[in-house]
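Internal ticket #5521
Category: modeling
Description: The requester needs a full-assembly model to guide mutagenesis choices. All entity lines are attached below as received. Residue total reported by intake: 866.
Assigned to: D.W.
Attached entities:
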Amino acid sequence: MKTIAKKDVKALLSLWTKDHHVLAPCRTAQGDSIFADFSEESFTLDYKKPPLPPKSVFLPHTEVIFTVENGQFKETVTAHNVVLFGIRSCDMMGILQCTSFMTRDRNDIYYSTKNAVAITVVMACPGPQNETCFCTTTFSGPVAHKGFDLLFYDTGESFIIQTGSKRGDDILMSGPLSDIDNAVARRKIETFTKQAVENIPVVDEITEAMTRLESGNVDEKTWEHFGKKCIACGGCAFVCPTCTCFNVYDHESSPGHGIRARAWDACLYGGFTREASGHNPRATQASRLQRRHEHKLLYYNDADIQGGLCGCVGCGRCSDYCHVRIGTLEVAKALVSN
Amino acid sequence: MTNSINEFEDADLFLVTGSNTTAQHPLIGSRIINAKERGAKLLLIDPRAIQLAQFADLHLRQNIGTDVAVLNGMMNIIIEENLYDRTFVEERTEGFDQLKSVISRYTPRVVERISGISAADLEKAARMYATSDKAMIVYCMGITQHTTGTDNVKSCANLAMLTGHIGRPSTGVNPLRGQNNVQGACDMGALPNVYSGYQPVTDTAVKKKFEDAWGVQILDDKVGLTVTEMMIAVRKEEIKSLYIMGENPMMSDPDTSHIDHALSHLEFLVVQDIFLSETAAKADVVLPAASFAEKGGTFTNTERRVQISKKAVPPPGLARPDWEIICEVSRLAGYAMDYTSPADIMREINTLTPSYAGITYQRLEKSHGIQWPCPNEDHPGTIYLHRDRFTKGRGTFLPCDFKPVAEVPDEEYDFLLTTGRIQYHYHTGTMTRRISILEREAPVPMIEINPEDAKRLGIKNNDMVEITSRRGVIKAGAEVTTRVPRKVVFSTFHFHEAPVNLLTNPAHDPLAKIPEYKGCAVKVRRCV
């Protein structure tokens, strides 16, 4: 296996920028860490859970599907040679689940074209990135099991790099890298992983909530409680690594000219399920929340979860960012509390 | 806001009035919901049963336009029961005797007759507010958009001073500003009576300071006109030309027919906007402006926090940032405004505006914003105002008497129409009605009507109803809901299909000149 000194990572990424569009953790002037275009000045290895999952790389917030000029349509499928450096294992699982969903029975070419050329470099987590991490519960971390091209393990002054694909091998052909004996590396990885798993406690309420939902042993008032305070911002869906729902719309700039585009949507919006007649099968905010959480914890597709526990990858972002505290953790805890 | 958004975390009680907080300031509304869960109290004074009503420990549904009476009634009880903060009143305020004499007339019984709020509930409310350690008043347009708007605000301030709920963390009088930069626009002197930082145009020293800075000797020392007054002046042909920026009075001003007539009367109309609004469509010249994402600069939010905003995408076509357009117009008119960037403009603001003196672009680049007043570069900014003294020294009680809405319902126009907004659209819809998901969420104008009124008038959900005032008529779908009390209908000003300001009353507050959007007399019938 290969290793790289932490101080040399910047040089490696710089090298990659020659042929790739490298997205990496960066420190903003205000002191926040975000994922953005790599630059030597802003790049940082001192980062926690990125605020947003990387799904927008494959499913941009807004994306033109086709343009119309003089009444003729032209499909627009775009892709760049992206390297996603330093994503977390939960987000790798998010990508796997999204990719399965977007390609399994029908190939969403706008998504899959981008996904096919992207190189994923996962940074294994030595422990929880904050108090809402529960990847050990959802089998999605702290170390990625598949899908990655490269997997970095932090061993203090350097990283051990595990490759997961030929593309991963290829991109390591050059750079400030050293070799490490495979057996030594494996032992170090094993120690790292064992400690990391111990550091991230399993949240029993998640599995218990799934059992309760399966058996229908759920107090309906729980949904009403959350529905009452949901401000319907849709933020939980936008920060979720496995939410892929989008809305399609047309914009006519002049007769015979325009675009058809798609944009992120959220099942917390009333109009998401409203039918043409005006009837809405999910007429209340409580029922929309129920639908959302059942989708993650009960009605997921076995083929899509990619070895995970369910349709949630345990990143905890919905709990981090919901302004009124209606994340998966809070919902699961409420479901099992009575 | 006298205080800051983070201070919501520690407040013991929120008095929310005239603010549909979860719909219009959802992030602040969320803080109130979270605070409720940790045990804070919520006292809601609002005619409508908004989302926060479900969280309120007490919801007073006053008759529309009776806010002064309700607030006076609370103060009456607080004084009567000796619940006011005697030390604060003695040390920090003046005019208490005058307040007491006016307030004494607003006994719970009197207020009950005026406002419809039972004496018992009013007493509960007064005690809740007065006996809380840290109580924040949170208000919005439901307080200001009345012919008594200034009186309503004064009454909120009186109440806070009487109880000492000001000048400390998690207290204060907190108007929620409705736009990302309306605070900044006011701070920069986009008002007829002040320069930036609220420096009066009538003050000779201030006038001289700005004349020296700008190298001119002709600055007017007379107070100019408000929007409301300008429209009247246009009708009287005292104004022949208007230059309107980022405003859509054809949808947003009361009595649209009057506005339409006024704008059509102009010899020359310039509109600067990011879209061709209803108002821009009437212009002789339209100057295309860049949107927030297409320009750099700063915004000042509701808690007086100045924040930097960077350009994300280039402006389309000929669109340019507002400051560039204004500089160019000025240059062509003979006065060279040669600013090179928003940072360059900020340097001038730092020099001429004492409350912004320490808010430099360099500091903003490295922070999440700075709250004014910030008198120098070493100052961290001000989290809450009036800590040891009020800006003017002692806080003066300015007691007000109740005055009813300008247009009281009668036999023919027997409903009160109150207007507002919904979560999914912003103001006149110039921007949000172009967004497909927002349009899906709220595609058509609706009029809220109470089930009892609806039944009497034979109106069912989604029936088309016709609302008529003395100034106009609109049609929209009915939403039969207990959210509105009886004899009140509610609608929004987002939809050009049913422009509610055709109906509203241009009667306005004598001081602030804000129109009475929150109450005018209308009649309602089902369309056949």
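Resolution: model delivered.
Comment from assignee: The radius of gyration of chain B is 24 Å.
Ticket closed.
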